[in-house]
Design brief:
The chain is mainly β. About 5% of the residues lie in helices and about 60% in strands. The chain has a 22-stranded antiparallel beta barrel. Strands 3, 4, 5, 6, 7, 8, 9 and 10 form an 8-stranded mixed β-sheet that branches. The radius of gyration is 26 Å and the shape is globular.
Length: about 700
């Protein structure tokens, strides 16, 4: 067994050593005076505080929407009933380093409308440090869309088409164009795109009491059409030694749904329309010094989210729901860091932030919720290296003022000043093998979707959705230990203890279902996870020959296996854990065609907060074939998703006899292409991206 462990380490050591060599490989041709940097991106990269997933070179991830790509990431759970979690931690969603501040079905709609082939990479930050807002809660997922800018006009065109065939054929297609250039005065980037998607959703809610016959409370068949357009733009000005960055993003969503429904005592034929738009403005000023280790940055960010939801009966031709909301958010922050002469290498970081969010909700043009929150924060963090050790010690102080009112009463105010410490220790056995231990205390403020008393989902006489304006913030204590080898191989354990955790709760009264949010006084989530690569030549050539092989990451067939066990502890509730398995296989076919198979499965009967998975909530088999043409400028991929048509969900709700089942048209076929329009400029110089300029050299965020 020890020989096999050594083999795994040797395999990934040689793979990623060769990757590192390719990343720094420079080819020089004297005649043309040309410099070409050849980069090979890692599919997965493990760091002490985060895991980075590459999307740009992974056809199995970028063949559909961003939401569909995220669902394929090992360890990431996206559920209709409990939101988005990674290794047991609720995720705060960021786009290009800035918080989206949208949640629930509005967030899903936004991610469904964004093509996955417009994504560069995704960072899952499981241990946010002091420089991140304490309101990040358990973890952060940062979706990075940007590309590098060059000293000439360059363009990349991306497109994708997918089809499903259930009761009828439905189509989905997307197109996007990325342009960027730089001159001696400024640099600029422009990314424009659209997404059109037809989809189906079937859902059934059944009351199944033990002592009486089952009753179907709601059986719905929704035919949906979604339309999204977006523009992301950036300008960069070099002001002698300093730099000014300006970003403006705008997204529009226009979604329709025709829903046939029947159930206990009713039949309906309804039409719903959801319109939303999101605008985001960012200004960043970076001050540079003679000492290159000093960094000073000022950032101002403002975004606005407006949404309207209408539900009309096609049978009686009357309006059932007319709900709208408007959310404004701004923040201003200052960050400073500097290296000091202490031990081997030491850096001190300090900063401050002020932000404010206001949210208004209306029902039939009458305001029934006004909510505001203001946060003032300051932090200090100390990072040092000593021989093979790395230490981080930090603390963040935040002052909160939350208030508001409904149309009938004032909200319970929240005015507190709190400290949030964080600490990390890492020991490097080798540059690519380490063990780390991390702790942080965080807070999560209730999302505006959970507070909103108005329903922005489909409802009928037996089913209702409602927010809870009186929700209180959640305090987290997060502890994590991880052993990582060569990015892919790792073993980890984490525990997250929460007070006043916000969760969804489904209740049933007289055959009427209510889905709302509540605070749970105490909750603890345990998560164990392991990832292990297995080269196929181990079985064909044997151990001795495999150890002699000079691995190339582009020319190797292997299986990557991931497993995670998650356990939710809730007082006065007998809960069970569940396993999540992910297997990704890469096989290289003739003509340089890459075949990737991805299989996901979760075990049933485990508790997901107050929900019980009566069947696997993540079960699919996907195939992807890809090939590059035209000197690798054109990438083409063909995808077959959910081949077995097993991707569906079925949850029970603790304390009830209710069964909630849903099925989307997930079995689909399609293709995607990315074409990098070649340039004749042989002296092209690569410049940092404008859409997202990282603060930390190892991929950290700015403007959180």
């Amino acid at each position: 067994m020890s020989k096999y462990i050594v083999l795994v380490l040797v395999f990934f050591g040689t793979v990623f050593n060769s990757s590192a060599q390719e990343e720094t490989k420079v080819e020089k041709e004297v005649e043309l005076k040309e410099v070409i940097v050849v980069q090979k991106k890692k599919a997965i990269e493990q760091k002490a505080d985060r895991t980075i997933f590459d999307f740009s070179e992974q056809p199995q991830l970028n063949s559909g929407s961003v939401l569909e790509g995220l669902k394929k990431l090992p360890g990431l759970i996206i559920s209709d009933v409990a939101g988005m979690m990674y290794q047991g931690k609720q995720l705060e969603v960021y786009l290009d380093g800035r918080p989206l501040n949208i949640y629930s079905n509005e967030l899903n709609s936004f991610l469904e409308g964004m093509p996955a082939n417009s994504i560069e990479k995704v960072e899952v930050i499981t241990q946010p440090g002091a420089e991140f807002p304490a309101t990040s809660g358990g973890a952060i997922i940062n979706i990075i869309t940007s590309r590098t800018a060059k000293n000439y006009l360059s363009a990349t065109y991306s497109s994708g088409v997918n089809f499903t065939d259930y009761d009828k054929t439905r189509a989905r297609f997307n197109n996007s164009l990325l342009l960027n250039a730089k001159n001696k005065y400024f640099g600029w980037q422009l990314n424009i795109g659209q997404n059109y998607r037809e989809s189906a959703q079937l859902s059934t809610i059944t009351n199944k009491p033990i002592s009486s016959p089952s009753v179907i409370l709601s059986d719905t068949d929704a035919d949906r059409v979604g339309r999204s357009t977006y523009v992301r733009s950036a300008l960069k000005f070099d002001l002698k030694r300093d730099r000014l960055l300006l970003n403006y993003d705008v997204n529009f969503n226009n979604n329709d749904a025709y829903t046939l429904a029947n159930g206990f005592g009713f039949n309906s034929d309804d039409f719903s329309k959801t319109k939303s738009n999101r605008q985001d403005v960012l200004a960043t000023y970076q001050k540079y010094f003679d000492d290159v280790t000093k960094k000073l940055e000022f950032r101002f960010n403002f975004n606005r989210n407006a949404s309207n939801f209408n539900l009309d009966s096609r049978l009686s031709n009357v309006s059932i729901l007319d709900n709208s909301s408007l959310q404004d958010y701004f923040n201003f922050r200052i960050d400073y860091s500097q290296e000091v002469n202490f031990l081997d290498q030491t850096k001190i970081s300090v900063g401050t932030l002020v932000d404010e969010l206001s949210f208004e909700a209306e029902n039939n043009n009458i305001q029934n919720l006004y909510y505001t929150r203001r946060t003032a924060a300051a932090y200090a963090e100390f990072q040092t290296d000593y021989k093979n050790f790395k230490f981080i010690l930090g603390s963040r102080a935040e002052d909160y003022l939350i208030k508001g009112n409904t149309d009938t009463a004032d909200l319970t105010p929240f005015k507190q000043f709190k400290f949030f410490p964080n600490a990390s220790a890492q020991y490097n056995f080798d540059p690519q093998i380490f063990v780390s231990l991390n702790y942080n205390k965080k807070i999560s403020l209730p999302s505006t979707s959970a507070l909103n008393p108005n329903n922005t989902n489909y409802q009928n006489p037996n089913v209702d959705y409602s927010g809870n304006p009186q929700l209180q913030p959640t305090i987290f204590d997060n502890l994590e230990m991880k052993i990582s080898a060569f990015d892919y191989a790792f073993v980890g354990y984490s525990v997250s203890s929460a007070k006043n955790q916000v969760v969804n709760r489904v209740s049933e009264t007289s055959n009427t279902i209510l889905n709302t949010s509540i605070n749970v006084p105490e909750l603890r989530i345990h998560n164990f996870n392991i990832g292990l690569p297995i080269p196929y030549m181990l079985f064909t050539k044997g151990l001795a020959e495999t150890l002699k092989f000079d691995f190339n990451p582009d020319k190797i067939n292997f299986l990557y296996a991931y497993a995670s066990y998650q356990m939710h502890e809730i007082p006065n509730l007998n809960t069970k854990g569940f396993w999540i398995f992910n297997f990704m296989s890469q096989i290289l076919l003739p003509k340089d065609i890459s075949f990737i198979a991805n299989y996901n499965y979760s075990t049933p009967n485990g508790n997901y907060y107050y929900f019980i998975a009566r069947e696997s909530f993540s079960h699919s088999l996907d195939f992807t074939f890809s090939k590059k043409f035209l000197n690798d400028n054109l990438s083409v991929a063909i995808n077959f998703d959910d081949i077995l048509n097993t991707n569906q969900q079925g949850f029970g709700s603790a304390g009830t006899d209710v069964l909630l089942q849903s099925k989307n048209d997930t079995r689909r076929f399609g293709f995607t292409l990315n074409y990098k329009i070649p340039t004749k400029n042989k002296l092209a110089k690569v410049d940092p991206s404008l859409l997202n300029n990282d603060k930390k050299e190892e991929g950290g965020l700015i403007g959180n």
